[in-house]
Amino acid sequence: MMLVSIWPVRPMTLLSTTRYSIGRRTLAHNLRGLIFILASGLLAWQLSRAVLDDQLDSLVWILLFVVGAGFVIIVMNDWQKGVYCFLFCLLFEDLFRKYLGNNLALFFAKDMVAVLVYVSFLAQLRRGKVTFSRPPVLLPVLMLAWFAFGQIFNPASPSLWFGFLGFKLFFFYFPFVFIGYSLIGSEAELKRFFKVTVGLIFVIVSLGIAQSILGHTFLNPTALADEVKNSAALYRVSPITGALIYRPCSVFVSTGRYVDFLMVAWVLTLGFTGYLLLRVRRGRLWAFGATVLVSAGAFLTGSRGCFLWTFISALAASVAFLWGAPWKQREVVRVFRSIARIAVGMVLAIVLLDAIFPEAIGARVALYAETLLPDSRTSELRARTWDYPITNFLGAFDDDRWLIGHGIGTTSLGTQYVSKIFRVHPVKGVESGFGTLVVEMGIGGLALWFIMSGAILISAWRIVGRLRGQPWFPIGFAIFWYSFVLLFPSTYGGLQPFEDFLLNAYLWILLGILYRLPTLAESTQPATARHQEGNFWARESVSSLTRSTAS
Prior knowledge:
Blueprint: H1 2-6, H2 11-52, H3 56-77, H4 79-99, H5 104-107, H6 109-126, H7 138-151, H8 160-171, H9 176-183, H10 187-214, H11 226-232, E1 234-237, E2 244-247, H12 255-279, H13 284-300, H14 304-324, H15 331-356, H16 358-372, H17 381-395, H18 415-422, H19 433-466, H20 473-493, H21 496-499, H22 501-523, H23 542-550
Antiparallel strand pairs: 1-2
């Protein structure tokens, strides 16, 4: 009787169940093998046909299909690896679009990967395998999102498709603020994210520098699609000397997106270099080289805005790094020396390029001097930084619907594709970003924009203050500065940078990482210095706790 109570299943029943489960696993394994063999044979047949018929486009599409299938498997098995697949698509999608006739299917490839990342992340969240916390900017973002959703159905909008497009550009990548927070669970994962990002930056900027010198025939197909022809083969002429300057686009379809990318690249390389300086020795030389390379790439763009903001960001980061360095450990001396070395490296890079390619460097120096120096008779510094943007902003109020707007997306990026497909015309807008918000969503949309942007910067600055004196401070300040430049100065000039999928996605990912940094910094402190865990935006820093205990 004791044996029966301990062994609730008959031995023969258990044996048959085991055999049945083994048989099911063997059958599933054989089916997967058969499917793999059939798929491999079909793929080989299609590849051989494409090669024999000399159909290179078909060959590229087949390879893209294989890579996409691999991405799907990777993302669904591991959402963290899926984030890096998404970043790869985000940065290199335009390269395939250029060579495949600007196919719109490729335009949504990164969005499909993003959706897969969301699904995979939610599946792991339901199982309790990821760290989750509500960001402090959730309510302001939801307020703007609720208002923008109503603007989709604005009766003055020519088409609902404009509204769907605008809403997607604004909020589709916002979930990455949660994913960015959960992505960085340790210092090793933080370094992995920045190493991958800086590595991709190194490749893209190197290609951009080569294209700046070689011209538009490098890294561009012979026949560009009509939608990207003007933006990928853009030249500028200096007003006095008549020097011709090519505006490179690197792997992107437009020079504007390459310039936007350099804004992200510059602050991230500065922040990562500062972190390595205060934390570890390994990788400093590589990060230093990437920083110098990005500065040279920004100089060669022929974009006056990119040139000025590179200089302003470098100055702001230098002051901030000195202020946030651990003064008690005398790290400020090392920070000061590193800033001086980076400045010298930037100058030497330009001098070296000038010695090898004097015409390319001389043309850009002439453009910047003739259009930016205040004493130049062709200076556009005041006109482009004050007169023109203010005039555009005030022009938004000349519209009769400035109170309620015409609807989100009616003047946004990508309206040319909606117009082409659905045969509707967008609303005439203004260049000013703040003015565009008025034209699309009225004065209420502009007010909610300022509320959301202010909440983001206030929450980011609080964390930057808590990280002062710690090696994570440079990364925290770099993310804060990027958010500030994107939400205010860049939007002051135009709304296109915020609507650019590249800058928008990186904004939310980096904010999620920033909100995780205090927890990461706390986890590396001695156990006696840790305090009770709470929400990440309400937790005091370890340094503040130490000071209060000492007092």
